[in-house]
From TrEMBL:
It holds the Pfam family Galactosyl_T. It catalyses: a globoside Gb4Cer (d18:1(4E)) + UDP-alpha-D-galactose = a globoside GalGb4Cer (d18:1(4E)) + UDP + H(+). It is found in: Golgi apparatus membrane. The chain crosses the membrane at residues 7-27. One of its GO terms (biological process) is protein O-linked glycosylation. One of its GO terms (molecular function) is N-acetyl-beta-D-glucosaminide beta-(1,3)-galactosyltransferase activity. This is Hexosyltransferase. SUPFAM superfamilies: Nucleotide-diphospho-sugar transferases (SSF53448). It comes from Nannospalax galili (Northern Israeli blind subterranean mole rat). It comes from the Eukaryota.
Length: 308
């Protein structure tokens, strides 16, 4: 009798143990990732002296090792000028680390040449975009709090830096300011095969806080410090734009419009000179289109569009 009770107990322990192991393995991938805002070290830093020469606007462009052509096109077009409408402007690229030593060497070389790369030693993959964005926030906080505004954007974007500068000067709001393509009523996507799938484990709530499309958003530089400061105390999310939205909600900073007309186009926009003179950002622009658009804009005159 005692013997079979013992066996029952062993069996019970075994089953419970197996169940725990199964749950652990099943959930391991989804265990909440604790974000350490200052984790990792900087591998590359740009040559920008913000104390000597405070920029009006710093453009931080998320990029990957393979997007060399996009960086080259940006350096020749909207990322080129250091002075725009009389204001200091700098365009910098955000990169992580690659497993390929060749890619790492090429990036180090590119950084030496252009001095416009911010790189840390996290793995450069799409689902680490939040780390990449937070690296940008950290960089502004540590190395460039003197900047007035910061834009975070992507490598496949057209940015009208001149018009953005003009609108920021006109808006004249230099603290607790956050703008872009507003997403005020977005929901988590629960279908597994979607690129933006978020499980209930990662984000249990049914609605996202207000945020701006990650394709391009602009903020006063104090926001970088504040977002950086609260980033460890909000739930980590791989969707960087929503994650920044969670930080803003905690800070009670509400994203707002930059202009009465739409100026951010996360879904893309057909090119015309007159149209692109009066937008801030447009998504889905290939390097070769960017060069073509830029040439057309450079050789146009604003007056020609006055009637449009
Ligand atoms: C993001 O980077 C970290 C640090 O390098 C790495 O441990 C992690 O696996 C990366 N995330 C993904 C989804 O690959
Ligand atoms: C910008 O706002 C400040 C107050 O916040 C004001 O003193 C200044 O005159 C404004 N500048 C312009 C150009 O409107
Ligand atoms: C960071 O947040 C803490 C509270 O979590 C606050 O006391 C502190 O003033 C903040 N620092 C900055 C620089 O905003």
């Amino acid at each position: 009798m005692a013997f079979s009770k013992m066996r029952l107990l062993y069996a019970f322990v075994l089953v419970v143990g197996a169940l725990c192991l199964y749950l652990y393995i099943a959930l391991y991938k989804e265990l909440p990732f604790v974000f350490k805002r200052s984790a990792g070290k900087f591998l590359q830093l740009p040559d920008v002296d913000c104390r000597q020469n405070p920029p009006f606007l710093v453009l931080l462009v998320t990029s990957s090792h393979k997007q060399m052509a996009a960086r080259t096109a940006i350096r020749k077009t909207w990322g080129r000028d250091r002075t725009v409408r009389g204001q200091q402007v700098r365009t910098l690229f955000l990169l992580g680390a690659s497993d390929s030593t060749d890619e790492m060497a090429a990036t180090a070389q590119e950084s030496q040449e252009h001095r416009d790369i911010i790189q840390k030693d996290f793995k450069d993959v799409y689902y680490n975009l939040t780390l990449k964005t937070m690296m940008g926030m950290e960089w502004v906080h540590h190395f460039c709090p003197q900047a007035t505004f910061v834009m975070k954007t992507d490598s496949d974007m057209f940015v009208n830096v001149g018009y953005l500068t003009e609108l920021l000067l006109r808006k004249n709001k230099t603290t607790r300011f956050f703008t872009g393509y507003l997403k005020l009523n977005d929901f988590p996507i629960r279908s597994k095969f979607n690129k933006w799938f978020v499980s209930k484990f990662e984000y249990p709530w049914d609605k996202y806080p207000p945020f701006c499309s990650g394709t391009g958003y602009v903020f006063s530089s104090d926001v970088a410090r504040q977002v950086y400061n609260v980033s460890e105390s909000v739930p980590f999310l791989k969707l960087e734009d929503v994650f920044v939205g969670l930080c803003l909600a905690k800070l009670k900073i509400r994203p707002e419009e930059l202009h009465s007309k739409q100026t951010f186009f996360p879904g893309g926009l057909r090119f015309s000179v007159c149209r692109f003179q009066k937008i801030v950002a447009c998504h889905h622009v290939t390097p070769s289109n960017l060069l073509t658009y830029w040439q057309a804009l450079e050789s146009s005159r604003e007056e020609d569009c006055a009637a449009v």
